[in-house]
Amino acid sequence: MIENDISKLDSLYKRGVRYMTLTWNNSTSWATSAMEETHDSLLHQPKGLNDFGKQVVKRMNALGMMVDLSHVGEQTFWDAINTTSKPVIVSHSCAYSLCPVFRNLKDDQIKAVGKNGGVIDLNFYSGFIDSNFEKRNTAFMNEHKAEFDSMRKTGQPEFFAQVYLYTKYKNESEQFRPPLSMLLDHLDYIVKLIGVDHVGLGSDFDGISSAPQQLNEVSDFPLITQELVRRGYSKKDIYKILGGNFIRVYKANAAE
User: Is 131 helix (H, G, I), strand (E, B) or coil?
Assistant: First the structure.
């Protein structure tokens, strides 16, 4: 994102950038990702933030740019938490205890975000919500392997080929999407650990191929509100979940 040039943080900030995710699935030379920290064959550097990475976090703090810890590996997470002077965001992750995949947060990480004053915004990807999704998805993809392989040979990216098959065989794919309630179970779990002030919605609609049933686009968000009401959340708490917590962290980072 910054091509190992810390001055580009200032340039991006001046153009309106207000948060940066430290890694994606691939590591940077100064921060290791969750993907690579959990797959030793992919990792070619020490885990965590190096000295330059810690300088990046400190400069982001000074500018008022939020540090996003989704996608980062556990060691990078802890190095960043121990370096930052401002509340962090985890822009699209869920609870590892409910769905043990490398992109979700373990309980001690969730508690650390709460102690830091940050916010965890839930990812809507079915595979990060329901631990049985990937097994059912694999069976679906095997059923349509010939068609998938044919699209891949024409240069179609894997993501779009998969989305195409979900759409073409909608009746099949609908059956193994998790219910909306499972997404809210992750929210309840985090609330019980660290309180309602530290959770929100991250969606990841622009980067996922499958979301819970009924949750197809932003216009479906009122269904989440209905479920929150049904589960007994107050109007004040629902306001926090639907964006208030994120705005609090945004303002806390912007403060001099």
Answer: coil
Which burial class, exposed, middle or buried, applies to 256 when counting CB atoms under 10 A from its CB (0-12, 13-18, 19+)?
exposed
pTM of the predicted protein model: 0.96
The Cα-based distances of 86 to 10, 73, 209, 245, 251 in angstroms read 17, 20, 33, 14, 10
Q: How many C-beta atoms surround the C-beta of residue 65 within 10 A?
A: 22
Q: Which residues of the chain have pLDDT under 50?
A: none
Beta strands in the chain, from DSSP E residues, in sequence order: 19-21, 66-68, 89-90, 119-123, 199-203
Rg of the chain over Cα atoms, rounded to whole angstroms, equals 19
What would the two tokens of residue 99 be? 């769905």
The per-residue pLDDT for 53 is 98
State the virtual CA torsion across 116, 122, 125, 126 in degrees, nearest 10.
110
Q: How far apart are CA 134 and CA 110, in angstroms?
A: 24
**Residue 8 structure tokens:** 């580009």
The two tokens of residue 192 are: 């019980």
Domains of the chain as residue ranges with CATH: 7-254 (3.20.20.140)
Residues in the chain, how many?
256
